[in-house]
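User: Please run a holo structure prediction.
Assistant: Happy to. Please share the sequence and the ligand.
User: Here you go; the ligand is calcium ion.
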Amino acid sequence: MFKKSLIALALMGAAVTANAASTNLVQNGSFEANAQASGTWNIYSNLTGWTGGSNGIELRDNVAGTASHGTNFVELDTTGNSSMSQSINTVLGREYVLSFDFTNRPGTAVSTNGLSWKFGSTSGFAPTVTDFVWHTFTTTVLGTGGAMALEFAAINGSNSFGSSIDNVSVTATPIPAAVWLFGTGIASLFGFGKRKKMNNSVNA
Ligand SMILES: [Ca+2]
Ligand SMILES: [Ca+2]
């Protein structure tokens, strides 16, 4: 019984640890880790934290648009449609909020822009917008445990002009109050069981 109480306490401890973690799990989500001179752009095979697809990753510092966060942002229609990905460690059953900013490239046809996203086995598209300002897309994805691949890809016309992306984040949602009550309930049950057993042995 003492052993079970210890397990219950360990579970509660794990919950406290997980609940405290609301930091961005994406490495270099704002693309500021790689130096890019102001007003310039370059195509890289990879960026810090990100593995580039077949046509690399285009990093821009306030050219053909301005960053939504910091000074750098990324375009994934480089010389043609490309992609980027990174691996994120998750906890089984935990909820994660995926968020990123996106915009059509200024001065281009709306039809040549577009982004798809994938996190683990969940995927979708950035909504189609007809203006040239930053929008924020947010969705919730359940953790499968272990490493989950986070991937973005340029879609539609593959012609070196496409959507920009910046400010990518994945954060674990806070553990609901119900889980805390459940954890406390388990601990109480173990405590009650222990007292009952002691009373029984006195009566015997
Ligand atoms: Ca940025
Ligand atoms: Ca394009």
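Residues 23-173 form a domain with the Jelly Rolls fold (CATH 2.60.120.260).
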